[in-house]
Each structure stands twice: as structure tokens, then as C-alpha cells.
Amino acid sequence: MKKINYIKYYLLYGISYIHALLPWSLLYFLSDILFIVLYRLVRYRRKIVRVNLQNAFPEKSVIEIEKIERQFYHFLCDYYIETIKLLHISDEDVKRRMKFENPELLNELTKDGNSCLLSLGHYGNWEYVSSIGFYLSPELFQGQIYHKLRDGAFDRFFLKIRSRFSPLSIEMSDAMRTIVHNRQQGKAMVIGFINDQRPRRNAGQHWTRFLNQDTPALIGMERIARKFGFSVVYLDLRREKRGHYVGRFSVITTDASKEEKFAVTEQYMRLLEKTILRDPAYWLWSHKRWKFKRETAEKI
């Protein structure tokens, strides 16, 4: 890491850690202020969010779209302060705030040495999902796939946060190598995939209908699951109230090698869509998810 990134990282970490020491009530007060700055003054990605919502919900009125939009930005600010709080939070507190209804399902799927891929989206506070390790068998290898951020300081900062509950953060380009190594060691694995990002233009993808739009879907998770015959589980997240989430696991397949091509990806996209439609404000609408159009991509 370059010297400037070291300085930037320690400034970011120091300021964030001081904020993490604050009580929840004060943090949410700061979030309310940040909402005004981000939404009203800076207008962070307002055009992208508005277009995404209008295209996803063409049946909704302007008033309804604006309501979801405001709720999204308010939640985005909550996500930020909740994530920073991970730098200074007790195990007991995170267990109160991130509950899982049926974590025994993962232990059941992996009890005979099998491995499981855990799929979810950028919905709710996905950073808290790594606390699932509290409920898993200690013999399991726990990992989470991530895409490296362009900014070195922010990349190191988020890796620090995501290591709070000890799962190994695995860069996507190292995923296959890590999985093969652990299989050779005879280790059963639970590895998390946030699988709703936009694929690179020239990357492997599968087109599907998602939120009323033709959408390219990542297929890396399915490829790995089919190659090794892993089970695949979806995590449905619900936001109960500010800072409190509940997750429920459902099986997509117990052996992806037996599934038709793209069947796992399609089922994941349908489940994620159902989650979003239930409470749309808690998905990451500021992402340029539909930057590439199908007719353009298919000509490349």
C-alpha cells in the first residue's frame, strides 16, 4: 500500500473508531443529520436511485417512489453508522441485533463433510451476517467472497471491519484456489457470496428478468457449486427495526451438480427479488445495476 493510502487508512480508521465508541442513540442522531446532508444537500446519486426505482416499479406513483427513495437514503445512513459500530461492539450486542431463525440448517447440510455456499444480496445490513459464525460448528471453514475496492485505504478498512467475527475474506479471483486447498485438506466449508452485483461487461453472466428489467446475473457462485457438488442456501434478511435484523435460510439445492445450467442462479434471483419487493427501501438502489443493456452486451 502506498504511503498516502497508509495515512488515509489510519485517519479513516481513527475517526471511525472514535465514532464506534458512541452509544447507539447518539449514532442514530448522527445518522439523521447525515441523511439531510446526503439526500438534501449533496444529493448523492439521486438520479441513479430515482431511475432505478422508476424502472423497477413502473406501476407506482411519483409520491410512492419518492417515499421509497427517502427511506432508502435514511437506511443507507443507518447502514454506514451500524457498520462503523462493528469496530467496537460486543458479541452479546451483535447477537441481539442480528438474529438467525434456523442456523441449524447450515450445520445439517455440512455435518457429513459437505460444503455449502451461502448466497445473499446487498440487502439490510449484510455486514452483520458474518456473525453467523457464532452458530456454526467450529470445525467448519468459514469464508466470505469479496470484490476488492479500487481505493486501497477503503479496501483495507472494510477488510478490517469484515474480520470482526473471524471469517476469512477471500478475493473473488482467489475463490477457486482457496476452495480447492480446503477440499484437499478435507475441510467442510460455509462460504458467503453477495451475488447481486453487476458483472463486468466481458465476464460470464446469465440474463434474466429481475425487477421488471433484463438483468445480467453473476454466475461464478453457480459455477463453483456445480463443479464441486456443493449445496446452496439463500439468506432472506428482514429489518425488524433500526439496527435489528432477522435472517432465515432456505435451501436452493443440496447438490448443485445435479441442477440444470443456470437453475441455481435463477432461483437465487427469484428469492432475492421476493425479499426486495417485500421492503424495497433496504436494497442498494444507488448501485449502477443496469448500466449495460442486453442488446448491447450480446453484440460484444
Task: Explain what this protein looks like in three dimensions.
- Helix 1 (3-20) packs across helix 7 (152-162), helix 2 crosses helix 4 (62-85) and helix 3 packs across helix 4.
- The chain has helices spanning 3-20, 24-42, 46-56, 62-85, 91-97, 104-110, 152-162, 175-184, 220-228, 263-278, 294-297; strands at residues 98-100, 116-120, 141-146, 168-171, 189-194, 205-210, 213-218, 231-241, 244-253.
- The protein has one domain (3-297).
- It starts with a helix and ends with a helix.
- The longest helix is centred in the first third of the chain and has 24 residues, at 62-85.
- The mean pLDDT is 93.
- It contains eleven helices and nine strands.
- The strands form two sheets. The chain has a seven-stranded mixed beta sheet with strand order 1-9-8-2-5-3-4. Strands 6-7 form a two-stranded antiparallel ribbon.
- It has 300 residues and is α/β, with parallel strands linked by helices.
User: Can you summarize the main beta sheet?
Assistant: 7 strands, mixed
> Hey, roughly how much beta strand do the residues contain?
15-25%
Q: Give a count of the beta strands, DSSP E runs of length 2 or more.
A: 9
Question: Helix segment count?
Answer: 11
Alpha carbon gyration radius: 19 Å
Q: What spatial form do the alpha-carbon principal axes imply? A: globular
Q: Could you give the order of strands across the largest sheet?
A: 1-9-8-2-5-3-4
Distance between the termini: 35 Å
Protein structure class: alpha/beta
Uncertain regions spanning at least 5 consecutive residues:
none
Number of domains: 1
Task: Determine the mean pLDDT.
Answer: 93
Fraction in helix:
40-55%
**What letter string, H or E per element, gives the SSE order?**
HHHHHEHEEHEHEEEHEEHH
